[in-house]
C-alpha cells in the first residue's frame, strides 16, 4: 500500500483511485455514523476525496494515509452538521458485525445505552478495526482517554447483557 500511496503522491491518478476504492467502505461507514443522510454522505465523500486528491502531497507518512483520509472525512462531516445545525447519533452499524449471541439489531439496541462519543469509539474500534492510537488521532483525543472510554463502554455493555 505504501507504494500505491507514493505513486498517488507523484501524480498517478489511477493509484489514487485505487486507494479510494480500497477505503470506500470505511469512508461510507464513518460518514454514515455522523450524518445518516444519503445526500449529506455523498457531499462529505465528494469533498473528502477532492480534498485528499488536492492535498496528498502534504501527507508525510504513507503508513498514516487511512488515518489522514478519515480525519479529513470526519472534519467534512462535522462541517456539514454545523451547517445543518443538528446532532448526529449512531444508531446504525455497518454490515458484517459478527457475534454468535447477538444479531445486528440487538447490537444496535445494546449500543444505544452508551453516550454518542462512546458509541463512535466502539464502532471505530470493533467494526472499522482502528487502533486506539488511530481513533485518538481521528477524534482528536488523548490515547488514554480513548482506552478509558473503551473500557468503560465494555463494562457498561457487560452489565446490560447480564440483566
Automatic annotation (TrEMBL):
<dbReference type="InterPro" id="IPR014284">
    <property type="entry name" value="RNA_pol_sigma-70_dom"/>
</dbReference>
<protein>
    <submittedName>
        <fullName>Sigma-70 family RNA polymerase sigma factor</fullName>
    </submittedName>
</protein>
<feature type="domain" description="RNA polymerase sigma factor 70 region 4 type 2">
    <location>
        <begin position="109"/>
        <end position="157"/>
    </location>
</feature>
<dbReference type="InterPro" id="IPR013325">
    <property type="entry name" value="RNA_pol_sigma_r2"/>
</dbReference>
<feature type="domain" description="RNA polymerase sigma-70 region 2">
    <location>
        <begin position="19"/>
        <end position="85"/>
    </location>
</feature>
<keyword id="KW-0805">Transcription regulation</keyword>
<keyword id="KW-0804">Transcription</keyword>
<keyword id="KW-0731">Sigma factor</keyword>
<comment type="similarity">
    <text>Belongs to the sigma-70 factor family. ECF subfamily.</text>
</comment>
<dbReference type="InterPro" id="IPR036388">
    <property type="entry name" value="WH-like_DNA-bd_sf"/>
</dbReference>
<dbReference type="Pfam" id="PF08281">
    <property type="entry name" value="Sigma70_r4_2"/>
</dbReference>
<dbReference type="InterPro" id="IPR013249">
    <property type="entry name" value="RNA_pol_sigma70_r4_t2"/>
</dbReference>
<dbReference type="InterPro" id="IPR013324">
    <property type="entry name" value="RNA_pol_sigma_r3/r4-like"/>
</dbReference>
<dbReference type="Pfam" id="PF04542">
    <property type="entry name" value="Sigma70_r2"/>
</dbReference>
<dbReference type="InterPro" id="IPR007627">
    <property type="entry name" value="RNA_pol_sigma70_r2"/>
</dbReference>
<dbReference type="InterPro" id="IPR039425">
    <property type="entry name" value="RNA_pol_sigma-70-like"/>
</dbReference>
Amino acid at each position: 500500500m505504501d507504494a500505491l500511496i507514493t505513486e498517488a503522491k507523484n501524480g498517478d491518478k489511477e493509484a489514487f483511485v485505487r486507494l479510494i476504492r480500497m477505503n470506500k467502505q470505511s469512508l461510507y461507514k464513518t460518514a454514515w455514523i455522523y450524518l445518516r443522510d444519503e445526500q449529506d454522505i455523498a457531499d462529505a465523500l465528494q469533498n473528502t476525496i477532492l480534498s485528499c486528491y488536492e492535498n496528498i502531497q502534504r501527507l508525510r507518512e504513507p503508513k498514516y494515509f487511512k488515518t489522514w483520509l478519515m480525519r479529513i472525512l470526519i472534519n467534512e462531516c462535522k462541517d456539514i452538521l454545523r451547517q445543518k445545525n443538528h446532532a448526529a447519533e449512531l444508531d446504525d452499524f455497518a454490515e458484517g458485525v459478527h457475534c454468535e449471541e447477538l444479531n445486528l439489531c440487538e447490537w444496535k439496541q445494546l449500543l444505544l445505552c452508551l453516550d454518542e462519543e462512546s458509541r463512535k469509539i466502539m464502532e471505530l474500534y470493533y467494526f472499522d478495526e482502528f487502533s486506539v492510537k488511530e481513533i485518538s488521532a481521528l477524534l482528536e483525543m488523548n490515547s488514554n482517554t480513548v482506552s478509558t472510554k473503551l473500557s468503560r463502554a465494555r463494562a457498561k455493555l457487560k452489565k446490560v447483557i447480564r440483566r
